[in-house]
Specification:
With 324 residues, the protein is of the alpha/beta class. It has helices at residues 22-26, 33-40, 54-69, 93-101, 117-131, 154-157, 216-237, 255-265, 276-279, 286-296, and strands spanning 5-14, 18-21, 44-47, 78-82, 107-111, 136-144, 162-172, 177-184, 192-193, 213-214, 247-250, 305-312, 316-323. The protein has two domains: 5-174, Peroxisomal Thiolase, Chain A, domain 1 (3-Layer(aba) Sandwich), CATH 3.40.47; 178-323, Peroxisomal Thiolase, Chain A, domain 1. Bound molecules: acetyl coenzyme *A.
Length: 324
């Protein structure tokens, strides 16, 4: 039999109920709705309720994706979950999700690639399906990034939100995922990181706990350049002209970064799924959230060519080209 492709059978997503607007934040730190909108494109973000975990968000998104796919949880052979904000240190959030779904027995693990977690997960699941060892896979991106923010730091607390997105993939003779591309450069750690952890200790040298440290302006420049390169790599790998792309489904960190990639592709913004205005940066959840919104809104149609990309802490970055 010819090498199978991984096809998307169904997608799902979930956003916590509570919405935090820029005005809410301006009441807390020295910022304004105008600054946040102008520099990032963000107007609001969703925040998980007290006690609501990454696993809870993942469960809702996965349930919706399975329903849309018409697949039973017991049919899953693999669960890959991208997150930087797992419920527990272990078991992995993927294992917690597997049990809640009733998919016990299949392989399940988390991937920590920060904002690129879903793209990495999709790349991994695609390889398993291409190799013929997995027939049906669930790939999830889920985060409660607001749990690791310093709410007094205006340079980071305005950027992030919580949410989850999921896709169900199945082996098929028709494409499917055409290619995935994954990269990392650990040399950029100082520009974007969380300085605490199990082995390094739960307090840093300044006696701070968990928080996001980011040299935003530097990250911005590298992100734009790197995403340009990965878009080019994806087109070349598939011997495609940029005009072949129907939809750009980008990581949603900043509208200015998204616009730069769209411009590079010669795509009008009407061909880009944008959610950053309502979701903020939901890290690993942002690409599957945007994909699900694009599909459920009826914009993205079967047979269209989609370019997914992401960039995040690590640095990590990657892309996926797929025929929906
Ligand atoms: N409100 C008002 N002023 C602010 C705020 C705020 N919320 N935050 C920063 N400022 C101020 C700064 O203090 C600075 O003031 P100064 O000129 O007096 O020093 C000024 O605004 C400009 O700051 P910059 O950091 O240069 O602003 P910039 O235009 O670069 O925008 C931003 C900042 C939005 C963070 C942008 O750089 C960005 O989006 N970077 C990329 C983020 C990203 O992609 N991260 C990767 C994914 S995240 C992950 O992987 C977890």
């Amino acid at each position: 039999m010819a090498t199978p492709f991984a096809r998307i059978l169904g997608t799902g997503s979930y956003l916590p109920e509570k919405v935090l607007t820029n005005h809410d934040l301006a009441a807390r730190v020295d910022t304004s709705d105008a600054w946040i909108r102008e520099r990032t494109g963000i107007a609001q973000r969703h925040v998980a309720a007290e006690g609501e975990t990454t696993g809870d968000l993942a469960f809702e998104a996965a349930t919706r994706a399975l329903e849309a796919a018409g697949v039973r949880a017991s049919d899953l052979d693999l669960i890959v979950l991208g997150t930087t904000t797992p419920d527990l240190i272990f078991p992995s959030t993927a294992c917690l999700l597997q049990h809640r779904l009733g998919a016990n027995g299949c392989a399940a693990f988390d991937v920590n690639a920060a904002c690129s977690g879903f793209i990495y997960g999709l790349g991994i699941a695609n390889q398993f399906i291409r190799a013929g060892s997995v027939r049906t896979a669930l790939v999830v991106g889920a985060e409660t990034l607001t749990r690791m923010l310093d709410w007094d730091d205006r340079s980071t607390c305005v950027l992030f939100g919580d949410g989850a997105g999921a896709v169900v993939l199945r082996a098929d003779t028709e494409p499917g995922v055409l290619s995935t591309h994954m990269h990392a450069d650990g040399g950029y750690k100082e520009l974007l990181y969380n300085p605490v952890g199990v082995s390094a200790g739960f307090r840093d040298e300044k006696n701070h706990g968990v928080r996001v440290l980011m040299a935003g302006n530097e990250v911005f420049k590298v992100a734009v350049k790197t995403l340009d390169a990965v878009v080019e790599e994806t087109l070349q790998a598939n011997r495609l002209e940029k005009s072949a792309i129907d939809w750009l489904i980008p990581h949603q960190a900043n509208l200015r970064i998204i616009s730069a990639t769209a411009k590079r592709l010669g795509l009008p913004m009407e061909r880009v799924v944008v959610t950053v205005d309502r979701h903020g940066n939901t890290s690993a959840a942002s690409v599957p959230l945007a994909l699900d919104e694009g599909i459920r809104s009826g914009k993205v149609q079967r047979g269209e060519l989609l370019l997914l990309e992401a960039f995040g802490g690590g640095f990590t970055w990657g892309s996926a080209l797929l025929r929906y």
